[in-house]
Amino acid sequence: MLALLIVVLMLPAVAHGQRGRGQGRGAEAQAPQPTGERVRVKTGHANIQTGPTSGNEVLVLAAKGTILPVLARRGEWVQVGLSPELRKTGMVMRWYKNENNGWVHDSMLEVVKPGDK
Asked: What digits encode the pLDDT tens for the residues 65-104?
């Protein structure tokens, strides 16, 4: 009986200690500074997601030709900055408020050379 009581009393502490573990907060986390590199959407549209996997939630669809600043790269994924203008020109897939960055698969993008518009 005493062992059961100890387990029951410890459950809230164990549950509290597990918070924040997992895949993280995705796009809400503090974004790195732009690298200076820019990319352009080369397909009809590109899914900008909350994290660097296709299983993450889609924030917005960026139309072909949209130019985005690169913040970081992780494997085949590119972290890009989200501008307030993109919220007006892209197709917003879910309500987002504080996200100022997202992730795009590099197959959807081409690098913009300096001097290109």
From this structure: 999 999 999 999 999 998 888 877 777 766 666 688 999 9
How big is the chain, counted in residues? 117
CATH of the domain at 79: 2.30.30.40
> Would you say residue 17 lies in a domain?
no
Q: Count other Cβ atoms within 10 Å, centred on residue 86.
A: 20
pTM (two decimals): 0.69
Domain count, the chain: 1
Place of tokens 């994924």: 77
